Amino acid sequence: MSKILVTGGAGYIGSHTCVELIEAGYNILVIDNFSNSCPEALKRVEQITGKSIAFEQIDIRDANSLEELFSRHQFEAVIHFAGLKAVGESCQIPLEYYQNNVSGTLNLCQTMKAHGCHNLVFSSSATVYGEPASLPITEDFPLSATNPYGRSKLIIEDMMRDLHKSDNNWNILLLRYFNPAGAHPSGLIGEDPNGIPNNLMPYISQVAIGKLEKLQVFGDDYDTVDGTGVRDYIHVVDLAKGHVKALDKLNQKPGCTAYNLGVGSGYSVLQMAAAFAKISGREIPHEIVERRPGDIANCYADPSLAMQALGWQAELGLEAMVEDGWNWQKKNMDGYHTN
Ligand code: NAD
Ligand code: UFG
């Protein structure tokens, strides 16, 4: 059976995608350097699926290891999650971001090319739209970057478009994720941020469980429903299923195409906090503070292209996202390091 390489498969979105791929019958091999994850995540994927996972600890910055891997395995396609993802950190250590994200992806594409593997699904981000002029966002909106993380995604997208132009044997799907949230309904895998979370959902969840005192709401004077920032939160299991659909699409020789993976509507910070309080039965104390530099007021997708072309749409709503996120948090107080 042909094999699918999953880079960064021990991470948040990668681990959920591994579950869906295995359940869809795919034969996968995962590589990861565990810079932002741990082996326990893959053990939990094995527990959920009842299948063992082929895994190699490889850093995508290491071209020789990639070459050696591809010389031992024939991959039909690669799903590429591996990379660094924290916006704030990318402003502090931009070179690490360009090295992991851009050079790592360059190594991967060069190795794929050398071994005749031309099918790639790449984790892009809604961040490539910068500050959108209107809403909802469609894939043909102008692209821009406001920080090194976003720029690394944009550079990679451009690199992919150039690669496909140079050789149309390549089939590359650029999946632009909106805001992933929630966890697997089993409560066995979920988001496990290092230190204090930067993102809203894991932050609220840690306030609910009592690890953090209160939520700081970054600004309440935006032009939105209640003045707080609005985002398109998408259940991580829906997102994971989008990757299975993307693999199906690669068989139709789609060229290099970008798809929005979002729900198509948004919730504000206060709406998210209220939903979490209701479902968890815990209080979520909050205070309004200054706007966070670089944040935009409103961001949500028009996901209709993914619906038409991939036959994919989000099926789970806010309640499932919050319930599953809370279930994961309750069962794993300290993420994968819970005893
Ligand atoms: P994550 O950090 O949980 O997963 C990334 C995985 O890649 C981790 O397991 C990490 O150890 C691994 N990794 C990092 N650098 C590596 C390297 N040089 N070699 C090998 N492995 C490496 O992040 P995630 O939330 O699962 O995100 C997955 C992808 O989706 C990333 O490319 C991210 O930029 C993108 N994305 C994430 C979000 C989000 O909000 N979570 C939004 C849009 C796009
Ligand atoms: N927010 C707070 N308090 C917090 C954290 C966040 O009020 O402690 C607010 C933000 O101001 C924003 C909303 O919650 O209005 C969501 O913020 P996140 O940090 O969770 O998500 P972002 O939309 O800022 O960014 C995320 C990822 C990016 C990715 C983008 C689009 O972090 O990498 O989604 O996919 F590019």
CATH superfamily placement of the domain at 3-181 and 233-262 and 302-310: NAD(P)-binding Rossmann-like Domain
The main β sheet shows up as: 7 strands, parallel
Please tell me the overall pLDDT. 97
Q: Which oligomerization state do the chains in this entry correspond to?
A: single chain
> Gap between N and C termini, in Å?
38 Å
Number of strands: 14
| CATH topology term of the domain at 3-181 and 233-262 and 302-310 | Rossmann fold
Low-confidence stretches: none
User: What ligand molecules are bound, each kind once?
Assistant: nicotinamide-adenine-dinucleotide, uridine-5'-diphosphate-4-deoxy-4-fluoro-alpha-D-galactose
Give the overall shape. Answer: globular
What is the N-to-C succession of helices and strands? EHEHEHEHHEHEEHEEEHEEHEEHH
Please count the helical segments. Answer: 11
Structure, explained:
The mean pLDDT is 97. It is globular and about 55 Å long. It is built from eleven helices and 14 strands. With 339 residues, it is an alpha/beta fold. The protein has a domain at 3-181 and 233-262 and 302-310: Rossmann fold, CATH 3.40.50.720. It has a seven-stranded parallel β-sheet, with helices on both faces. Strands 12-9-14 form a three-stranded mixed β-sheet. Strand 1 (3-7), helix 1 and strand 2 form a beta-alpha-beta unit. The longest helix is centred in the first third of the chain and has 21 residues, at 94-114.
